[in-house]
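Database export, one record per block. Field names are fixed; values are copied verbatim from the stored entry.
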Amino acid sequence: MKKNTQFLWFYTIILFSFALILILFAGLTQQNYEEELETHKTATVGMQKSVTELTRVNTELREENARLKADYETVLAEAEQVKGEKETLTAANEKLFAALKEYDKGNRKTARELLSEVDSSLLDEGQKYIYDKIMK
């Protein structure tokens, strides 16, 4: 019976030793998990701040892009208007030049007919002088 008691004590000591080892192992593992969790929380907060900042910058860039597109459309419309005015002025200049040639040749009626299609408000001072000279 003494052997059984010794065996039982030995068995109990071994069980308690394993239990103690398992408790220590669980504690160390829990500590590691908590450290990792804190690291992940910190990283997550940093990522959330980055996402928030990127979202804000993205919104600003979209607004700026919309403004720039509107400005581009405005400039494009102005360019078309200037192009149209340039073409009108070029046509008026060509007709004025052709009318002056006809006037110099003595064809005053033809010169006046050419100038009847020209808007005199578009002409500068030199061109108006020629226009008025021919239209007299």
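Remark 1: Helices lie at 2-105, 108-115, 125-135.
Remark 2: The two ends are 148 Å apart (CA to CA).
End of record.
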